[in-house]
Fold this protein.
Amino acid sequence: MRIRFLFVCAVLVALAFPALAATPKAKGETDLGLSGFFGFTQTATGNGVTHTTPHWYGGTAEVRHIASPLLGFELAYSIAAPHNDTWSASAPLSPSGFPCTPSCSFMPAPSTIQTFDQTFSLDWVPSMKVGNLRPFAVLGIGALLATPDNGQVTVTVPPGNGGGPVLTSFSLSSTVTAAYVYGAGVDWRILRNAGLRLQYRGEMYRDPDIAPSLYPATGAFVQTAEPTIGIYFGL
C-alpha cells in the first residue's frame, strides 16, 4: 500500500508540474533534459537465492526547474532496455503446487528471465551557476517498476510417481518498489537555451521479486549506477 501511495503521488506531481513551472522566466529556469546511460546493478543475495543483473543501457527524461541555488527540483523518468537477469538457488526449493511425491522440493537450474525497468522520481536539485557551467546534485524518491518480458518461467522438475522429469511453468509478475535516487553532475551551456548534461545517477531499492511462485524474495537492498550523458533545452 505504501509503494502504491508513492507511485500515485509521483503521478499527481507530474500532472501538476506544468502549473508549477508556468512562470519560469520571472522566478527561475526550466528545462527539458534527454540523456542516455549505461547501467550497472549489484548482485542481490538472500534467502538462498541469487539474482544477477548484467550491464544494460537506457534513457532518462527530466523536466527540471531551478528557482535558486538551493531551490530546484525535477521530475524524472528512466527506462532500461530489456536485459536477461539470472536467478539461481543455493538450496532446494519447495514452491506451492510442486508436482512431486513424496518429496516436494527440488534444485532448479539457474533461470534466465528477461526484464525491463522503469523509474519515476521527484528529485531535489541544488545547483550553482559558474559562467557557462552549472554543477548540481540530485536527491529524490520515486518508484521502480520491474516488468518480466514473459508471463512465466519453465523449469525441469525431478520424477514424480516413478515417471521421468517433467517441465513445469511458474508465473512471473511485475513488481513496484520504492526507489531512492541520488547523484551529481554538471550542465555545460553551449547555446543560449541549450547545452550538454553530464551526470552520475544512482538508485537504491529492494530487489524486485518477479518470480514469487518459484524463488523466494532475496529481501536485499541493491544499488544501480548510471553514468549519463545527454542534452538539455530551455523551456
In short: The longest strand covers residues 175-191.
